Amino acid sequence: MTFAFWFFAGAAILASFLCITRRSPVSSALWLITTLFNVAALFVLLDAHFLAAVQVLVYAGAIMVLFLFVIMLLNLGDAAPGENPRWSPSRVVGFLAGLGLLAELLVLRSAVPPDAIRLPPGVVAGEMAGHGAVQSLAVPLFQAYLVPFEITSLMLLAAIVGAVVLAKRRL
Amino acid sequence: MSLDLQKGLGLLIALLPETILAVWAMALLLVAAWTHKDPRALRRIGWVSLAGIGVAFLAVAWLWTAHPRLEGLPTSVAVDPFRWAVDAIILLGAGFAVLLSIGYLEREGILIPEYYVLMLLATVGMMLLAGGEDLFVLFLGLELMSVSSYVLAGIDRRREASAEAALKYFLLGAFASAFLLYGIALVYGATGSTKLGFIGFQVQSLQLATHPMLLAGLALLLVGFGFKVAAVPFHMWTPDVYDGAPTPVTAFMAAATKAAAFAALIRVLLRAVPLLHDTWSPVVWWLAAATMVVGNLVALNQKSLKRMLAYSSIAHAGYLLTALVSGSVGGAAAFLYYLLFYTLMTIGAFAVLVYKGRDGERTVTADDLAGLAESHPWLALFMTICLLSLLGFPGTAGFIGKWYILTSAIGSGYALLATIMVLASVVSAGYYLPVIMAMYMKPRLHAEVHADVSVPRVMRGVLTAVAVALVVFGVWPSGLLKTARAGARGFLPDEVVPISQGVPAAPK
Q: What is the mean pLDDT of chain A?
């Protein structure tokens, strides 16, 4: 178990590093897919099987295919050697943001979640053993959160109609 | 009638108006896909969508008169008179905006039937935003409303100003939504719930009144709502967006969008954090004062009528915030009364602009209305009544609304804010009266200058009804005041379902 964790965690970090250092946008996108797969494996180790499956289907599958589509459609070439200077402002900001996230992670290691949202120990494991990952997610989604779920679908409909109305050349 | 929202039927009845409107919109989308894109079909779809709004209005009226009471645990939507009252106002605004659009779309060559579908979906979003008892529903309603409005603002895509308005609205709207969402996350972190009633209960039982996470969440919520209701200093997007969008959409946004966002703000403040009144009321106080002062002063400088009305709507957001400061039921009642007539008079003023202007109405100035009273005495009279009501002139409903807000503010000890409101209203005479003077006292440039202004027969009836309402309720307000008070009663403690029943087990 520990070995599996270190293997997938290391692979995820390595792949994400390769993702941001490659010249060609297509290989960057492919390394991002590798990262997402490794994170999905970490979810499996945490017993979140449903989340892992969704991660692979939605992120590694649908969204990244869309990314590659756009890259190839726009025919983006490799970045020229001098095009991205080593210390452009966006890189500095990105580096600082990364440092900030790292610091937050270190601080949060010792943080205690607020009383109001802490579940008693054993609740999650009991739920997983009793109903499995999919059912424990599906029941609240279609009962307690039915109304928000339906509003989300209406919102997506509005977004699709809007995108077509604004983007289509002839209606 | 008692409703159990845990059961399917109870939930369906509680959400009947929204369901009707959403199903209507989807059916209309299919109809639009199968009809030819000609002006006659577009006109027909406009009338059908108006009928949908009418049916939803009937459903709201039925629910209001049936006095449904919650049984069992409260859930994601509120069932109280305040919701029905705001829903009715939103539907009035939406119906009025659809009526304005019917002729407008043909004239401007925007032959897109999906326009009406988006308008109905935006209305559903507004009603959910105003009726959400759960921060989830509230946020998703807001997003449904916003996504539809972004597209509506840019629907005249050949005009550069319209596209710019849509993009600006989209970027700043997304920014505001992020603030709101982060605020919701922090409030959840502090209280362990997204349900407004539970949050209120947790604040009391866990002694959270000074909890930094709750306060930070509340601050972010206020910023998010500040953007949506266009309160100073979060108003920067408003003039450009209102100016660039097609005028019926501008009227819709200025009236109905603002009404829904305000209703949600009032619900969050009075249901979730009434105990923190001492904390949030100074913030709302400053927002109200700054919004009234800046909105009115900048409006003085505007040449374009459409931009002037945009700033005037910012100023009115300040008046509505004044009704909120006291956090009392009286304030909520004053808010409801003013909101109704704000919606009518704002859309009314934009209506005159729709009939006078061409090409997005950006260039119409007060002087362009010169001599309108000679050629169109009736339209000029209507515009005068709307502007006087916006100004708060005695004898109009706007005056009674302002009076009611002032009494509630003074009654709760906010005399200084009331003074600022009176002074700001005096300033607003500086930009409303020149329009009236131009219509009545300046001569026409030439005899044909208003020849192309024609108001369809149906609209004449509607505008007359609005003018009559503005005057009648300005002289005999008492019946409606009573209704407004009944509408705000939902916030009285004895009307609220005891929340302790539904609180999750206390963490050990």
A: 86
Specify the pLDDT at position B499. Answer: 41
Quick one: pLDDT at residue A78? 67
Q: Which residues of B touch A117 (CB under 8 A)?
A: 188-189, 192
Contacts 24+ apart (CB under 8 A), A135-139: A137/A50
CA–CA gap between residue A102 and residue B479 (Å, rounded):
62
The DSSP secondary-structure symbol of B442 reads S
Regions of chain B with pLDDT less than 70: 74, 359-362, 490, 492-508
Position A171 scores a pLDDT of: 55
- Grouping H, G, I as helix, E, B as strand and the rest as coil, residue B2 is strand
- Within-domain flag for B276: yes
For A91-115, letters b (16+ CB in 10 Å) and e give eeeeeeeeeeeeeeeeeeeeeeebe
Q: Report CA A58 to chain centroid distance, whole Å.
A: 9
Question: How many structural domains does chain B have?
Answer: 1
- CB of B75 closer than 8 Å to CB of B8: no
Is A161 in contact with B155 (Cβ distance < 8 A)? Answer: no
Nearest-angstrom CA–CA distance, B387 and B373: 15
CB contact under 8 A, B206 and A115: yes
pLDDT of residue B361: 63
What's the predicted TM-score (pTM) here?
Answer: 0.90
Q: Quick one: closest CA in B to A162, which residue?
A: B151
ipTM attached to this prediction: 0.89
Q: Chain A contacts of B210, Cβ < 8 Å? A: none
Which residues of chain A are under the pLDDT cut of 50?
Answer: none
Nearest to B229 by CA among B196, B253, B247: B253
| 3 state SS of B325 | helix
> Coil, helix or strand for B365?
strand
Within B67-195, residue ranges assigned H as helices are: 81-108, 114-131, 135-153, 160-191
Q: Domain range for residue B323?
A: 2-497
Tell me whether residue B471 is in a domain.
yes
pLDDT at B455: 83
Asked if the structure places residue B253 within a domain, the reply is yes
Chain A neighbours among B 131-170 (CB < 8 Å)? Answer: 134, 136-137, 140-141, 143-144, 147-148, 150-151, 154-155, 157, 166
Say what the pLDDT of residue B364 is.
82
B402 within some domain: yes
Closest-CA residue of B relative to A145 is B76
Whole-angstrom Cα distance, residue B109 to residue B113? Answer: 12
Q: Which residue of A has its CA nearest to B35?
A: A171
Per CB-CB distance under 8 Å, the chain A contacts of B128 are: 151
Q: How many CB pairs under 8 A join A and B?
A: 94
Nearest chain B residue (CA) to A148: B137
Of all residues in chain A, the one with the smallest CA distance to B127 is A151
Candidates B75, B114, B507; nearest CB to A161? B114
Q: How much is the pLDDT for B496?
A: 45
pLDDT score for B7: 79
- Which CATH number is A1-78 given? 1.20.120.1200
pLDDT for B122 equals: 97
- The answer to whether residues B261 and B220 touch, using CB atoms and an 8 Å cutoff, is no
Q: Does B111 touch chain A (CB under 8 A)?
A: yes
For an interface test with A, the pick among B30, B83, B143 (most A C-beta atoms closer than 10 Å) comes out as B143
